[in-house]
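Following up on my earlier thread - several people asked me to post the actual chain instead of describing it. Fair enough. Here it is, all 182 residues.
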Amino acid sequence: MRRPTLARPAWKVGTVALAAGLVTVACGSSSTSSGAAGASSSTTSAAPSSLAASTPAASTPTASPASALCQDVAALRASLDKLKHVTVGKGTVDEIKADLADVKAKLGVVKTELHGQWQAQVSALEDSLAKLQAAVNDLASNFSASTISGTVSALRGVAAAGSNLLAALSKQCPSASPSPST
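Reply from S.P.:
Thanks for posting it. Predicted structure:
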């Protein structure tokens, strides 16, 4: 028997449906873990940009390194780097608080621009920043070896959560890739 002549149009329809599905997955990937989110994000880059631009669900931030999102992600990265490399000591509590406030402000801007994307990574960073805030408050009120240790531990948590978010965002803004931790 001969195959129906609809094979080519069906293939094209299947390709368009697959591309639309990938765009849908990209918009819904914000609640996945960082590993799965990175994998789904990398598959969405194969979708044709003309399809993504014409789809209502394609209101995701642009991937242009010069875009506002990418500029704000770069600013967040710089703030995180500054916070990660602070020396914890008796006279540095105010510096840590200022750096922490700067990261929170820049994260708020990036979070707004993401429109719900990468929510798991954003929430993880927000949680780690809250833990650092509590540790710094403890350090300020009772400077001791245990509060120093708690602050250093909280800083490591911020560094890890920040790296996870920046790794996820590096799909949209290649300059956002996390810097190596020291």
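DSSP finds seven helices and no strands in the chain. That should answer part of your original question.
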